[in-house]
Design a protein that fits this description.
homodimer; alpha+beta; DNA-binding
DNA sequence: ATTAGTTCTTGTCGAAGTGACAATAACTAG
DNA sequence: CTAGTTATTGTCACTTCGACAAGAACTAAT
């Protein structure tokens, strides 16, 4: 974020940036040991310049002249993870006066969901200034640059609300998945345990999930049936397309 | 929206503007005759310059250098209606490339709820370029400048979702109100009729509404009991304050 | 082969919520 | 005093949801 002429800019409207909160599902760790459950993780970028040099921050940057907001968010995602989003949605526009110490910045923030990285894909991004952190770890959040801790907290809250009536879950998963995996997603997002029987009944009723004839083999116990998602696979929910026809 | 030096700006990031969709409750009219119900209305501003000169548009304008996004939205509201908002909330940031024919504009849009204007207050704003229109009138929406029809439709949709679990209703009303008035609000927002008995039961259970000892007199029939709102009266729901404590 | 252990899957029961609708209460207008 | 209208309460069937029991299907150990 550097400008040819700073004094010129300050007279004009604030700088416009786009940042992206990227969530993925990974094995939960406590003290380096896996708990057997999953939890939410997000990639952060270490700042190489002032302000907040050396601290971790959300991936983001200024909006290019002929770049859609979504395109900018997707670019953040690609630069950080090398992945294409399976879900990308606008979170909020943060416009406080003192979010950045020097130049005022208005940030339009998106949140994205990606599937768990394959080890090979992770190797593609070998940047020491990019790393993944547990999204609910207070120590991580407190060390973030700018107001990014607040942004992540709000993203977590919105994610928890969205998952209730949406079919966000399968965005974290692959083409085929077990109901137990879907439950893991919900438990990570909602941050509480769910009853398997009731959860299964709920899925049968509402979500666009269809059983297949295949089973997940190789486990240590009864093999679970595999399901697949049959609903909308659009990556970006646009306000225009979200509105039902009769609302006009 | 004029700038000292247009060519300078176009090299830099897009212009940033704040617009506000303002809703209020008024008597529904069909063919100039009141139906006895209420419906949603919104104020629009006639454009006096190109582009879209002469057409109606949402109140809005560029973001001032040291002005919060909410402040800008509240300023829109005050300039158009002379009123202070009883509810103000961020809707969405619209950043399409060709929203405006010439200079690219990114608009951060808020939606506001105000109580029905008193006739005196209406007279305070005697601007022929400001007028109120039915929010669900397709003819009105189709004639709007820019992409504002899309924005209003999205605002209506969001309003309908929000009212479900929120206590938006009383923002349209005064300090004391009858349950029938609350029902009118819900019917206007959801755009469908509700059963009075069930609606009343629902309110008893969830919303922060408390009966008073007073009754609304002067009606033609049995006088209804007056209620009052006991919940949160904060005007602006901030993301930071929206997040519950355990989400961090 | 049998048994124990774990996960997967279905079923049951009561509490709570919701839509449809009947019935009573309380006022005004004639 | 009666009819008309709105306000308010109550009832009943249906659905939803949390808690929990129980059977099904596989692996691993004996």
């Amino acid at each position: 974020m550097e400008f040819a002429n700073v004094s010129e800019r300050q007279a004009m409207s604030p700088e416009l940036a786009v940042s992206t909160v990227i969530f993925s599902l990974r094995d939960e760790l406590v003290g380096g040991q896996p708990t057997g459950r999953k939890s939410l993780w997000l990639p952060l970028v270490r700042r190489t310049r002032q302000p907040f040099r050396g601290q971790w921050a959300l991936p983001g940057g200024p909006l290019a002249a002929r770049q859609t907001l979504q395109d900018a968010a997707a670019a953040n995602l690609r630069a950080t993870t090398g992945l294409a989003p399976s879900h990308l949605e606008q979170l909020y526009a943060f416009g406080g006066l003192d979010r950045s110490p020097s130049q005022r910045v208005v940030s339009i923030v998106y949140w994205a969901l990606v599937r768990e990285e394959h080890p090979e894909a992770a190797r593609l991004i070998e940047d020491p200034n990019v790393a993944w952190f547990p999204a609910r770890d207070e120590a991580v959040l407190d060390a973030l640059a700018f107001d990014h801790a607040e942004i992540v907290s709000y993203a977590l809250w919105r994610l928890g609300n969205k998952v209730e009536y949406g079919s966000i879950a399968h965005r974290f998963l692959g083409e085929r998945f077990t109901l137990a995996q879907v439950q893991e997603v919900y438990e990570a997002v909602l941050d509480r345990r769910l009853d398997a029987a009731n959860f299964r009944r709920h899925l049968r009723g509402t979500a666009d999930i269809e059983p297949t004839d295949e089973y997940l083999l190789g486990g240590k116990h009864r093999p679970p049936r595999l399901y697949r998602y049959t609903g909308d696979t659009a990556v970006v929910p646009d306000p225009a397309s979200t509105v039902p026809a009769d609302s006009t």
